[in-house]
Amino acid sequence: MTTIDLFDELDDAIARAQPSAARAWREAQGWPRSAALQGIGGGVARIEFCGGDLYQPADREGVGTPAIIIPCWPGPAPDHSDDLVDLLAWVPGAGLFTRRGIADVLGEEAIRQSEPCMGITRPLRIFADPGAWARAHTWNDRGDHGLVVIRWNRVRATLGHLGGAVEFVASDVATGRRLREALQPKAPAAPRILVTAAEQVAA
After folding, report:
1. Is residue 1 part of a domain?
2. Cis (ω within 30 of 0) for the bond into 19?
3. What is the pLDDT of residues 158-191, one digit of tens each?
């Protein structure tokens, strides 16, 4: 099994984003330079899809799909390299793909920042995509200003404990509707009840 060095891959993607053509492409996709300068992310790489929502870096120059590479930290960014849990590849128009399949959200620290503390809460902002998340970033933020959902099928496990205690603020109507649907409990399946043939005869 191949070992994945997330920090080396992030470093490589950041280096690839330095030439002016790569920076111009990244910014044209909606990723601001200020976010990249402050460690929020914004590397550039060509990737190949591995099935599901996983990706790997393309192994040859000129092959693969261009993507913006964003680190997924469990705390404020940029955290220690040992704490890098996953990399997110954002392909505008095509979706979100992770390197290891671990991260459920981008901006995990925002969840902790929104949890009630001594009766005080702050709204949890949910952004439609990483570009909107990065554009909302300010110099005072370290990736804790809100989050992007990577895996919508995990929303109830990730955010369900905040329901009723925290206000969710979606960046647009479509994201708000999707969030509401994802947080609603699913109706339990009706149990399948069988009766043995002997019991039917006896009745």
Report:
1. no
2. no
3. 998 888 888 999 999 999 999 999 998 877 778 8
